[in-house]
Amino acid sequence: MSTQTTETTEAPDTTGAAQQPHTNTAPEALQQRARAQRTRDRIQTTGLFVIFFLGFIGIWHLATVGLDDGGLAPTPGATWDRLLEMLGTAFLLDGPNNVGIFYHLLASIQRVLLGFGLAAIIAVPLGLLLGTSRVIHDGMDPFIQILRPVSPLAWLPLGLALLRDSQMTAIFVIFMAALWPILVSTIDGVRRVNPLFLDLAKSLETDTRTRVFKVLLPATLPAIVTGLRTALSTAWLVIVAAEMIVGGRGMGHFVWNEWNALNTPSIVVAIVIIGGVGFLLDRSIAQLQRLVPKS
Amino acid sequence: MTAETLPAAHTSTEPVVKLEGITKGFPDRKKGFQRIVGTTDVDIEEGEFITIIGPSGCGKSTILKMIAGLESVDEGTISLAGQPITAPSRELGIVFQQHVLLPWMSARQNVLFALETDPHKKRSKQELESLADEYLQLVNLSHAADRRPTQLSGGMQQRVGIARAFALEPKVMLLDEPLGALDALTRHELQLQLLELCEQQKRTCIMVTHDVDEALLLSDRILVMGAGPNAQIVHDMKVPFTRPRDVENLEQDPKYHELRSFLLNSLTGH
Asked: Where is the ABC transporter domain (chain B) (predicted)?
């Protein structure tokens, strides 16, 4: 008892010497109210998502179960079974016709990243050049304007004829899909660089290398990353269609193969996987976008 | 004005900057070449703070850009220490109207960038860093040196720009409405800081402004431009106040009010 009393009398002495610092922190009650509001919002969104999801499954179930179509329409139950089965055999590698979904996915991602990477390597420097020089740009512009609206798939037969290789052709098609968004966005980005940055660089008598790498490129980076983001989503859209035609391995080939086998639940599973991976690819570039300071 | 308070007399008679009948214009399809702005001959002495003042759109910024070598001169010549100016040079330090700080670099890195890119002088990293810090200190920004431009207020951004231009230690400072984009309070604060800095550094400065008080406070000489098109210098006025200057003393001086109304009248065309 006696020790406790000495402690309590000592306490104000030690803390009382240090003055309460002035802070911007709101009173505890206000903070609690804000936290409660956030929790309520989160519960509401989650609840709504669950309701929508169950509603979706319900409607899907009612629409497909007991349909007299020879079992073509995928039911939620069959799709779920198929999903588990496909995940179970995801890493299967047993001859050319028996390949797990993981290897199809890997093949698609590889093609997309290769074609996309090649496009970036060419489009970024070209975009910097065309954005800087009005004369070269105006000479090239008709080509860009005519080729840009062409579906990348239109290049596919030409690719097969000239490259004589389905793998190379798929990469080429992805290259054509990714090239234009990066090129156009880079050109636009260079043009929107604050002209005073270039005046500053000139007044400092900087050489061309410094001007390009220390001023122009960093100032254009946000626009370049935006272009890369559009290009990667476009490439991911195009790869499925391209693989349906070129065959081999890949998500597009898988979907088409399952259609030939009239195995529609597999197609639904594949669609969900394609969507999920597309989302992840987009997120990864969005993260990159965050790192780049806006100019 | 007594002899002791006058700034040290310039020993060289050669002007630092010489404008010789310069004009700027544009080709017009119907009327041929159209002049938009021009000057008579102007000699700017070493250490002089000269202000070009004029109504908006008269082309005063164009004149400054021509001196900076960022705009071509259509007729006449501009020379720096006897040599014609044909391209931008590090001898001409520019403070722009908006802050032109690279957003991916801190305040310190922005000043350092300007110093490091010097193709003429090779200096050690250490030397450049202490130089950058010294000039940031001069504009009282040492505490914010590591902040990015977006983390600085408008006035601080402009102070970094001023520090960067001074750090180049150029023959001539060119200030293009350096405080034009700031709010009234910050503007006044920075005018005083700029006054102190200029009196301490004694660099030749050419400033463009449309603020009469700013011009009177800072300048040794004011060139008043008429209205465009083809605006010309209509007055070349000495500012007789002794240095170092003090705003409060200045505002009590009847001469200050006389010059102020003269400038206002000539700007508004009365």
From this structure: 17-252
